[in-house]
Specification:
This is Asparagine synthetase B. This protein is an alpha+beta fold. It folds into two domains: 116 residues, UreE, C-terminal domain (Alpha-Beta Plaits), CATH 3.30.70; 303 residues, 3-Layer(aba) Sandwich (Rossmann fold), CATH 3.40.50. Helix content is 34%, strand content 16%. The strands form two sheets. Strands 6, 7, 8, 9, 10, 11, 12, 13, 14 and 15 form a ten-stranded mixed sheet that branches. A five-stranded antiparallel sheet has the order 4-1-3-2-5, sandwiched between helices. Helix 2 runs antiparallel to helix 3, helix 2 crosses helix 5 and helix 7 crosses helix 8. It is globular. The N terminus and C terminus are likely disordered.
């Protein structure tokens, strides 16, 4: 009798348990990774997105202009566990809540959009094998965000390995073949090692000089972009890349670099049709002047100090200009400036078809620019290290554990995820 009395209760609890199991799985259907000021670690949030794309091959919604460019991910316990380990802020939301967010974003009167990220890009960083007395902001942030990459240099480029990758990064590199114009450091071990390495590669590939070899490398990279690759460059890899291409067939370097004097009429022969971003610039051949051309805005021309050096991100239409919108996603619209061998680009030398993503208006300079080249894309970002205003030769690398919410470093990582976007969404 006692058993019979409690039998209905047993039948009641079984469907109740099933209901809670089912409703629980439906309730926990999406993960929202906020990218506004509530995010504890913006940089690692990019890394977890890359990790999900690479290891699970599922789509991620990048919510442009929604809470700083948040990410919406299908729910998985393994995802939330990994986010917790990495110190990333996230919210588990229902499918209904996710639908409400997507409906809000899709409204025609709001400047938001959802872009599908589909496949983790294969990443390569162009960097010498020898250790240099400065650090690369991109390798620092890729390592911190836990995004894998391969290192390639002149050998790999000249041997045709670039098509194996989707995304190529160039940082503190001199494509004019003048070793950064650091001639005053010629007796330092790192300079001698760099010079010896470059001369060995030039001889191996039967080039008459390092400048000729670096030009060939720049042309290979240009072919990579034209064929559909994505190139991101910082510091003096930006202007020296364009200078080398514009000076194809012209001697713009002095004899200590190639054994022959520079052509005194070189600036009248530059072909700006070959360059990606800049036009009408003039080279600076003097070996003891550390500048390569007049593209870079000099400190005495800028009239800025660390206290007032800031640049502003432009806002683009997320629905009509998704590419520049992706590249400018941030929780801050005003970014603190930072110096480099190439710090900023004078506006007057930027080609009209190039999109200026961020600028310092008082200094008449562009800091962050983007455009297409053939079937591919390129982005140039002036300066050396977004969290070290004036990084000097031999200084310790920036510890990104102290800057997990760096707005300046976020711009680099926007470029990492950009190639993962669904192609039909790219309207520019």
């Amino acid at each position: 009798m006692i058993r019979e009395r409690f039998k209905p209760m047993k039948h009641f609890f079984i469907p109740l348990i099933i209901f809670f199991m089912l409703s629980g799985s439906c309730w926990a259907n999406r993960i929202l990774i906020p990218m506004d000021e509530t995010q504890k670690n913006h940089l690692k949030a990019y890394g977890i997105s890359y990790w999900i794309l690479k290891n699970f091959e599922i789509e991620i919604d990048w919510l442009l202009n929604y809470r700083g460019g948040s990410f919406l991910v299908p729910y998985s316990q393994s995802f939330t566990s990994e986010m917790t380990i990495r110190g990333i802020s996230f919210n588990v939301i229902s499918e209904g809540q996710a639908g409400d967010i997507l409906n809000q974003i899709s409204a025609p009167d709001v400047n938001m959009d959802a872009v599908k990220l589909q496949k983790a890009p294969r990443v390569a960083v162009y960097s010498p094998k020898s250790k240099l007395p400065w650090d690369d902001a991109v390798t620092l942030v890729l390592t911190y965000a836990e995004i894998p990459y391969d290192v390639v240099y002149d050998d790999e480029v000249l041997n045709g390995k670039l098509p194996e990758y989707d995304w190529l990064h160039l940082h503190h590199e001199d494509f004019t073949g003048q070793f950064g114009k650091f001639f005053q450091y010629k007796d330092y071990p790192w300079y001698r090692e760099q010079k010896q390495e470059a001369e060995g590669t030039a001889e191996k590939f039967q080039f008459s000089s390092v400048p000729q070899m670096k030009l060939a490398v720049a042309k290979k990279i240009s072919e990579f972009v034209s064929g559909g690759g994505y190139m991101f460059a910082m510091c003096n890899a930006t202007d020296t890349f364009d200078i080398a291409l514009a000076a194809d067939g012209i001697d713009i370097v002095e004899s200590m670099y190639d054994g022959t004097p520079a052509d005194p009429t070189a600036n009248g022969k530059l072909n700006y049709d070959n360059s990606f971003a800049f036009r009408d610039f003039k080279t600076i051949p003097y070996p003891y002047e550390i500048e390569f051309s007049d593209i870079d805005n000099q400190p005495d021309e800028r009239g800025l100090t660390e206290a007032n050096d800031f640049f502003t991100l432009f806002q683009f239409s997320a629905k009509w200009d998704p590419v520049p919108s992706m590249l400018t996603q941030n929780h801050q619209s005003i970014i603190k400036g930072f110096l480099g061998q190439t710090t900023a680009f004078k506006n007057k030398f930027v080609k009209p078809e190039v999109v200026i993503l961020a600028e310092n208006k008082p200094a008449h300079e562009a800091r962050y620019i983007h455009s297409t080249h053939g079937k591919g894309f390129f982005t140039f970002y002036g300066g050396h290290d977004p969290e070290d205003y004036q990084h000097r030769v031999g200084e310790e690398p920036t510890d990104l554990n102290l800057h997990p919410n760096s707005a300046g470093y976020r711009l680099i990582l926007n470029n990492i995820l950009f190639p993962a976007a669904k192609k039909k969404k790219l309207k520019t």
